[in-house]
Specification:
single chain, alpha/beta, 3 domains, about 400 residues, 13 helices, Arc Repressor Mutant, subunit A, Rossmann fold, two-stranded antiparallel ribbon, 8-stranded mixed beta sheet
């Protein structure tokens, strides 16, 4: 139809021109007739051109719709997400990782490596470091520009350096550490390993990225002690809020960080490492549900509850460690109990916690139901219902 209308329009135009040309050579009596036929042919041609335009628009729309439908069909036939699905195993209440570490101190001592501790504010970096320093052995020296008087109460306070932002004292002490290392190299070369007995030290550097910025000796300190300190029983522990080599003053030397240090990742850093690096969604959930007591040590999960740990003596001796209480609860479990107190015996469902308690905003309903079961197993409250209708009440 499109081509016929197009042909007819051009034909009418040719006929109109031909009739006008013919009328120029005819008698006056015939000219009006020829002129009228020419005008009629021209009007018919204009009408056909309108038809051609309309049919062209219809054909264009039809062609566009055809191409879109073809693209949709191709996408449906070739898109892998239309054909595949991934199932993540459910995390049961009694699930435990196969390579779980219960004693990180024993692991660190066995590896004979330094410690790089990574965690955000409130993840328990200082608590873990204080516990580590009380167990690792040797003379403990702390570089902490923000420490309070009671943070390291069991240590000789002369070994807590840098209080009140005294970075000059930290820089001087780090320079002295490098001299001590060089002296031990000379002594061991002359008299053997026996000279190291009683000279073991454990050096703790809090918020190491700040020390790198403020202390000229910090970058050299970590590089030399990381590579040579282990042989001479000079172990270091550095704390940061990111696990990049740059944060530990080892820019361009990532290999030293991973070969000379045990990396301890607390809080969200451990969860993220399990999920993105180890590709283990179930381990990531397990870490998240455990709060501060669960973290990653190198590529292995660790569970150590330090919530009952504390110093009961202010003398410069190693602290006495109190035994954890029988019913220690993480922040998620405590939040559920608090909700139970508010609702006075009503059944709490996962949706209620997701909508009314901010802590559970990013927790799935299945994970919350696992927490319900965990609390019930501890003898706190009871579960009601089963499956996706499982609830809990105090």
């Amino acid at each position: 139809m499109h081509w016929r209308a197009k042909f007819a329009s051009w034909g009418c135009l040719v006929v109109a021109i031909a009739l006008l040309s013919l009328g120029a050579t005819q008698s006056r009596k015939i000219k009006p007739w020829l002129f009228g036929c020419s005008v009629g042919a021209l009007c018919l041609g204009v009408s056909q051109r309108t038809t051609v335009k309309q049919l062209g628009e219809i054909l264009k729309d039809t062609d566009e719709a055809s191409r879109l439908n073809f693209k949709a069909w191709i996408s449906q036939q070739t898109a892998p997400n239309q054909q595949l699905s991934i199932t993540v195993p459910a995390l049961t209440a009694d699930w435990q990782p196969e390579n779980l570490i219960n004693n990180p101190i024993e692991y660190i001592q066995k590896k004979q490596k330094h410690v790089a501790l990574v965690g955000g504010t409130g993840d328990g970096k200082s608590t873990f470091t204080q516990y580590l320093s009380s167990k690792i052995g040797g003379s403990v020296v702390v570089y902490d520009s923000d420490s309070k008087p009671d943070d390291w109460a069991w240590l000789d306070q002369l070994n807590v350096i840098g209080r009140k932002g005294d970075f000059a004292a930290i820089n001087q002490a780090m320079g002295d550490d490098l001299k001590v290392l060089q002296e031990l190299v000379q002594l061991r070369g002359d008299r053997g390993d026996s000279v190291l007995s009683g000279r073991e030290r454990f050096l703790i550097a809090e918020e190491f990225p700040i020390l790198v910025d403020e202390c000229d000796n910090a970058a050299t300190w970590i590089k030399r002690l990381a590579k040579r300190g282990r042989r001479y029983k000079q172990f270091i522990c550095c704390l940061a809020q990111n696990d990049t080599a740059e944060n530990f003053g080892l820019a361009g030397d990532k290999e030293t960080l991973y070969s000379c240090f045990v990396l301890v990742r607390l809080g969200s850093f451990g969860v993220s490492y399990a999920k993105t690096k180890l590709k283990d969604e179930r381990l990531s959930q397990w870490l998240k549900l455990g709060g501060k007591k669960r973290f990653m040590v190198d590529d292995m999960p660790c569970e150590l509850d330090l919530s009952g740990w504390g110093v009961v003596s202010t003398s410069p001796q190693l602290p006495q460690v109190t035994e954890p209480t029988p019913q220690l609860l993480n922040e998620f479990e405590q939040a559920i109990i608090d909700a139970g107190d508010r609702l006075q015996g009503e059944i709490i469902k996962a949706r209620y916690l997701q909508q009314n308690v901010r802590l559970f905003g990013n927790i799935t309903a299945d994970e919350i139901r696992i927490l319900f079961q965990v609390l019930a197993d501890k003898g706190i409250g009871e579960t009601v219902g089963e499956g996706d209708r499982l609830g809990w009440r105090l």
